[in-house]
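Batch 3, record 17
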Amino acid sequence: MAEDNNITTILLGGEAGDGVKEAGISFSKLLLEVGQKLFISFEYPSLIRGGHNSCSLSFSNEKVFNNLNELDIVIAFNKETVELHKKELRKGGIIIIDSDKAATSNNNLALPMSAFTKKQNAHHLARTSVALGALVYYFSLPLNKLEKIFKESFKNKAKDNIVLARQGFEYAKKNNWPQLKIKIAKKGTARLIDGNQAFAEGLLSAGLENYIAYPMTPATSILHFLAEHKDKYKIKVIQPENEIAAAIMAIGASYAGKRSAVGTSGGGFALMQESFSLAGITEIPFVAVISQRPGPATGVPTGTGQADLAMLKNAGHGEFPLVVLAPGDAEESYEAGARALNLAWQFQVPVLVLLDKHLSESIASVDLKENKKIVRGKLANIKEKNYKRYSFFKDGISPMAFPGTRGLSVKSNSYEHDERGIVTENPTIVKKMFDKRFKKIPLIIREINNQSPLKVYGDKKATNAIIFWGSTKGAVLEAIKNIKQSIKAIQIISMEPFPDKKLASELKQIKKIIAVEGNAIGQLASLIREKTGIEIKNKILRYDSKPFNPADLAEKINKELKK
Amino acid sequence: MDLNTKTKITWCPGCPNFGILAAFKSSVSDLVKAREINLENLAIFSGIGCHGKITEYLNLNTFTSLHGRAIPLALGAKIANPKLKAIAFVGDGDVYAEGLDHLIHAAKKNSDMTIIVHNNQVFALTTGQFTPTSPKGLKSKSSPKGSIEEPLNPLTLILSAGASFVARSYALEIEKTKKIITAAIQHRGFSFVEIIQPCITFYDTREILKNKIKWLDEKYKTNDFYGAFNKISKSKEKMPLGIFYQVKKPIFEDEV
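Prediction for the assembled complex:
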């Protein structure tokens, strides 16, 4: 198994409503318990019951950046899973299938999952436990640890799952299934977390007080996570009538002095454009996370894509300073959550964070480095008379005060305004106020440059480079293990302000640059040309709603390098 | 107590907006003197339109928002700091067209805020087009042959949506308007005050309204939903004015 690569990949597949995701997570928890490192992703259609769902689970002793698509094991809860995924099966790989669902063939291991479940009179969702028990046998893992995981997840309903897992285990043993040995190590401090939850925890670490969002896949699980834990974190979570209201409410809450954020996908953010511009002119701290899915319009709601960079970097009508960050994995997503709130309050600017479905919903085993920094920003001396919300300061940052402060009034205005916040059409003041806002840009650049606006992997002296962003990072880092020539891999994290000088210097010695992006036109490549004048002619683009597959990607990169 | 800013007032001379501003300032002065509110806790929001300039003329916490967006802005501030007294001045085009969803949902939530609608039945700042409350047949720059739509009845809509205080006043009756605004600010929950206002430049209804308005008599009961609904539905001939409905209901910000 997986001789040429120490990553093992299992795919669990079934109908929506079969509990595929839950089963994948339970087994992942077990692997984490025995010290494995994991990456887990999910594919599902936009419906509640029926349709094909799958969970891909890759694990290794070393860090796993992305799933591999060469499967070692397919667990098929229905026949369709076999049909859909048998071509992805590695040579010598096995299919474990519910014996009720299909006749066995040579490389199939039949397991009476449905039969055991019926006999036990258990809920149909408990059927997956039979398979997990058999997997425990297959990988020579401790069954009691799986039982403990069931108890933690299902509480007093875990009994059936435990019995069925034992039956699966015994069945595999009795039928002399092959067995492998995973190196069992002590459980580290890593835990399983997806990109969305990591982002939410990042926001919380930087003092989030309100989260306001209208449901939209794939950002919705941030709303779910924060709504579930709002009492624990003492935050307010609001689901308003639409995305416009969400963004405006967040601005209202920040105006009143509370750290707020909103979350949506591309379509929802399109509705937030005017609010975003309002945050720009009123210099009110604003944070939005946009988890991309393929558009245009409703597009492919449960697919992944990276096609909203162009919209975000030009977000909002008019001109004003803004920040756009694009993390590439769960750790960076956590950091981006914390940085977004801190940057927004430090500089009184809107900050956007771009995620995508593959990052938002994929789970990785990570050790998050806890953020303890909360930047409150420049606050007004409340004893000051004649407070002016937009007073001209050398650095362009005016001290903030909030309604409810005795002896002063805080005036904000969507019209161009004077220092006091009163509407103006005086061209001198209009220009001065623009200049004041733009004075912040060099300060933002300095701050961003201290926070890795780009990262370099691979051979730092290579003359070939791949450039990428967002969740494509995982596939690229797995793919470059199989690139024949030496290669430098550059990840852009800060899209605005753009690290043009740093990137130009990284590309100085490069003869061939390849952009790898999840969109149809190469939006990062366009941005690089705009900001640095460097034209990237070689592009590997994927826009079929699926994430990059490392093996395919390696092949394509090798081909580009041969050209 | 100086509630004025030094900003030059740019409403048309004689605009009933002056009446609304005067009524509001007088109401605030009384409430502050009676220690019912603290000035620093007042947070005033407005939309865009002639009405929206009111925030420029008030030396208070104010936020001149976008067209139609004063209400969610007020709601956000209220969530952040429930001690604030949130008041949103909005226009008929502003709140019944662009921002209608926000109005209905804030009423549904019984969010603790006061909405004051400057209803002049016309878009004035954009030099005269029909709005959702313009009468059928109104000739305007965007309806030169007369508007083909029936006007909306905002009061029945807002009552159905869940508002716990529904009133209507007339901008030229400053004393009565002040009393209604005061009652609306004192009310805990969603208080909605529509102020009928002639636009002396683009739609001067002063003559029409003179014989049309009719104040509720003192025996009128404000706690009867269906009574209120009937009263404000049958307003073809006469236009009733006063507080139609006022009840206590759970408040969104107390529970969120």
